[in-house]
């Protein structure tokens, strides 16, 4: 299914995993999973807790290595030794527990580890003006008007922090943006802001990998969907192949939900009264 070499109009994927497996000791975290990421597209990875979503992105991010299958970046097969190597290839990953320094200003966090400097030798110092200005304009460019880039990043909402991390990846020239459940802890409104931002990164030509539990969020912005179930691929669809209803049904494990609903109907209610317990 993947773009074959010399396969005519198929373009080379930014990232392509083919039949990838990963073991943690005896635990099979991923088995035979395939995923394509194209520029200007959002590939969503959906699945329940423990399905292998984070494991998958850790391979792409250079934190873990796959045990079987192939992982290619822009057509070249890779086995990344570190997150640094992934970054050098243009793969930026935003983890759910964002690596930010809460008490440092937004602009400091934006440039953390990549600070521009002015002058040379003993006169070399951080170019604070540039950092402030750039942070503000990069956020504005993606539609967020930060009142004050000097405020500690810890005072921003969870959604805004996700947005800073995404803007940062775009600014530093990422080609691939990997997001691990960016909306998991957010309410409806903030999720909307983050999703708009994810779409902005896509419109800037990046290939995005969006990990989520939420089929609604995935279907709103996604171009491709990979469903993981206990480490295996339970489905792989493009947007025109699958409706939101069907995606939700597959995600919820349709038949399992039916089973659960039967059990809930039939099961005698457990006795939760106090005198049912041993103490009381
Ligand atoms: N470092 C590890 N060592 C051993 N087992 C692991 C390790 N990391 C993950 N696993 C196991 O691999 C499986 C997949 O885990 P993973 O974190 O990829 O799931 P996930 O889809 O991201 O789940 P969640 O939605 O809860 O974040 C799970 O059974 C998990 O217990
Ligand atoms: Mg996870």
From TrEMBL:
Organism: Streptomyces lycii
CDD domains: ABC_Carb_Monos_I (cd03216)
Annotated protein name in UniProt: Sugar ABC transporter ATP-binding protein
Residues covered by the ABC transporter domain: 15-255
One GO molecular-function entry: ATP binding
SUPFAM superfamilies: P-loop containing nucleoside triphosphate hydrolases (SSF52540)
Record keywords, A-Z: ATP-binding, Nucleotide-binding
PROSITE patterns in UniProt: ABC_TRANSPORTER_1, ABC_TRANSPORTER_2
Bias kind Basic and acidic residues: ranges: 259-280
Location of region: Disordered: 255-280
Keyword Translocase: no
């Amino acid at each position: 299914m993947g773009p074959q070499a010399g396969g005519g109009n198929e373009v080379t994927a930014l990232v392509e995993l083919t039949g990838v497996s990963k073991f943690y000791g005896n635990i099979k975290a991923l088995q035979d999973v395939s995923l394509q990421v194209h520029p200007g597209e959002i590939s969503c990875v959906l699945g329940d807790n423990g399905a292998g979503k984070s494991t998958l992105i850790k391979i792409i991010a250079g934190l873990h290595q796959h045990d079987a299958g192939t992982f290619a970046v822009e057509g070249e097969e890779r086995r990344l030794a570190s997150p640094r190597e992934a970054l050098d290839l243009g793969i930026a990953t935003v983890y759910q527990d964002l690596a930010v320094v809460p008490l440092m200003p937004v602009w400091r966090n934006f440039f953390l580890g990549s600070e521009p400097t002015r002058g040379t030798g003993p006169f070399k110092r951080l170019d604070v003006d540039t950092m402030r200005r750039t942070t503000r304009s990069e956020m504005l460019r993606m539609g967020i008007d930060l009142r004050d880039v000097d405020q500690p990043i810890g005072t921003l909402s969870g959604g805004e922090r996700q947005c800073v991390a995404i803007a940062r990846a775009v600014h530093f020239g990422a080609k691939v943006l990997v997001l691990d459940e960016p909306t998991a802890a957010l309410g409806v409104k903030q999720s909307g802001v983050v999703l708009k931002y994810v779409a902005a990164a896509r419109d800037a030509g990046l290939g995005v990998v969006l990990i989520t539990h939420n089929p609604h969020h995935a279907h709103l912005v996604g171009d491709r969907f990979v469903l993981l179930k206990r480490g295996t691929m339970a489905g792989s669809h493009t947007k025109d192949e699958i409706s939101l209803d069907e995606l939700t049904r597959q995600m919820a494990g349709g038949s399992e939900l039916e089973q659960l609903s039967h059990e809930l109907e039939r099961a005698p209610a457990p006795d939760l009264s106090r005198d049912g317990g041993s103490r009381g």
